[in-house]
Amino acid sequence: MKIFDIPGVMGQAIGVRGGLLIASMAGVALVLASSSAPAQTACAQSDFNCDGKPDILWRNYGTFNAGKTGVWFMNGTTYLSYADLPVETNPDWQIVGTGNFNTDGKPDIIWRNKATGANSVWLMNGTQRLSTATLPAQSDPNWQMVGVADFNADAKSDLVWRNKVTGENSVWLMNGTTRTSTAELPTWTGTAWQAVGVGDFNADKKPDLLWRNSTTGQNTIWYMNGTTRTSTANLPTQADLNWEIGGAKDLNNDGKAEVLWRNQTSGENAVWNLNGTKVSSTPFLPPVNVYAPVDRTASNGLTSNPRTDAENMILFLDSQAIAYGQN
Fold this sequence. Notes:
- Helices cover 0% and strands 45% of the residues.
- The protein contains no helices and 24 strands.
- The radius of gyration is 18 Å and the shape is globular.
- The two termini are 33 Å apart.
């Protein structure tokens, strides 16, 4: 029996110290031209089956099926099916996001080794790993890779970093797997404030930064113009700290990012649809067993709290992912 097929067993999406890591792209196929290759049809940065809809990437850091990695194929907030990815058994290697690093228009998977500071990319063709490329190392473990997005509008994925001790923030501007330069972002010294997502919240086609306070439950957006912060805005507070933000981006194709949540206690997953900074609705994603959604209705005989191993899983949705698991 596959890990996906185990009914009634709740797993955990990762992110905030074992919570959810999510982010997404607008589900629109683009055409990219290259001087060295034919035009490519681009998938959203977590769209592993290139259907124009972001998918969800899971990794197991626990002892049960350790190193298991897989993809939920999604239609908005509806689970369709799953696929296995290659296994990485070394728990020091942690997924921190997806992006396009070889200009083929397909999502690649970014990894960071929390022990050595090494960084690498799985170059993917859908769910097939083609090869592995090395990124520059960052040996200081206080620096955490917290997101992936195009911050200089060159159609190439860049890497967002936060120093969990000093509060410094920066972006590695990338040309594929080569770092071309580093841009400094404003510093935020309060260690309770954690970068939890990157997405376009004001429909200006530029990535913004989403923050959550792990003590108070406050949530804030930095509106960005490239690497310049133009303004900030507060979202509603979610004081129940069992709910952890995994990330943000456009799931419903309205041109603006939604906020994705995971409850570490109940195993529930939810989305904040936003109208500006107001929550207009909160659809729920399926609760999660080790990878496949669980029908928690009484007819299936599941208990009201089927969570069993909720610290094992890591969940991403599209390109931005927050490296809380690197603590």
